[in-house]
Design brief:
By secondary structure, this protein is of the alpha/beta class. The protein contains 15 helices and 15 strands.
Length: about 450
Amino acid sequence: MIVTPTFGRRTQAPSPSTLPGQDAALPREPVGSGARQTILPEESVADLRAACMARLDANVIALMAPDRLTTDIERLISEIATERRIHINGREQRTLATELVNDILGLGPLEPLLEDDTINDIMVNGPDKTFVERNGKVVLSNVRFRDASHLANICQRIASSIGRRIDESSPMVDARLKDGSRVNIVFPPLALDGPYMSIRKFGRKTVDFAKLVEWKALTPAVARVLEIAGRGRLNVVISGGTGSGKTTLMNALSRMIDIGERVVTVEDAAELQFQQPHVVRLETRPSSLEGRGEVTQRDLVRNALRMRPDRIIIGEVRGAEAFDMLQAMNTGHDGSMSTIHANTTRDALTRIENMVQMGNMGLPSRAIRTQIVGSIDLIVQVERHRDGGRRITQVTEVCGLEGDVIALNDIFQFEIQGEGPDGRLFGRYKVSRVPPAFLPRLAYFGLDKAWRSAVDDADGT
């Protein structure tokens, strides 16, 4: 059976108070959050685990539902414990049975974390350290793998499920779990402390602007402005750092797309959640083990132009496909959107310019900036602050060229004013009264008065 080699004996993981270095000072989850609580000696647990695995039939297991398998394994553990005179109570039997089922059918000790909707990211730094991000804060969880081979087996199972391999000869892989969560794995010798795994969980609940306002990511007036931008088919780029909430904001913006429009999405790893009935989802493909068959985002964007889209949505621009994105936005596909990693809205434009030059060597900078000005209407900056909150910090209009410099107008600029007793930051938006250059387009959709009203309301929040 595939999982049998991973069930070996290991020494007890160091307790939180004895972890080396600065681990004792790290933010930590309460004991019991994913950790197995048992008074049974580790040697007895390993003995029961190995004996139980030896009696399981892989062909039968594959056909069983998880709940039924858990019950049968729990009964088998009880029988083996009686035979070997190992004292184990009902709670310990159930815990061990659940662990075995998670190892056989799932991702082992990570299963409870994957089921926890309050966790956004899971970061495994070797078998003894698993960090989670909850409510914007990263803490060290109590989850442990038995040893490096146990963790390696879980990683290899993830890679093989998508037809990839992960080992010393191919030590890095990007994958996606069945629920849509993104996974990145790094193996030794690149990973010095054992296999590393990073999981960006796929949100099960759709998020709209009302929910973002509830989370204080923006004010109702700013939300209304972004809703108008979506309905008015403005070309929008969402900028921010890793884990700042770019994809969440794009999902919220996508709810403003009319159900009659044909939308083509291009993603490196599919995670967008559009509600419209006419959505065509495209995803890149890595090269095979022989180094052939790769399909890049640029290939998909070019192909998307031939699919009669009303809007093209690019999950994240990170390379030469930036040029094709600008072409799409400037050739009748108004309302297109994308995300990019950058610290400010000005930095986002600089990154786009650099990425275009990467794929189109020799193209003059002024020509690229002219293309940017003619393509992008709004840049929305999102940021994760030190209190763990994710907020929209800038909504910037791309106005035009002044000489060789792109002129920008910060319609909204978030200014932090202080910190509350609960540690949460608070502030207000500085509002620009300059009419945007795209106001005639909003007037075409009958949204110009709504835009002015929303901006006026934002000035009072």
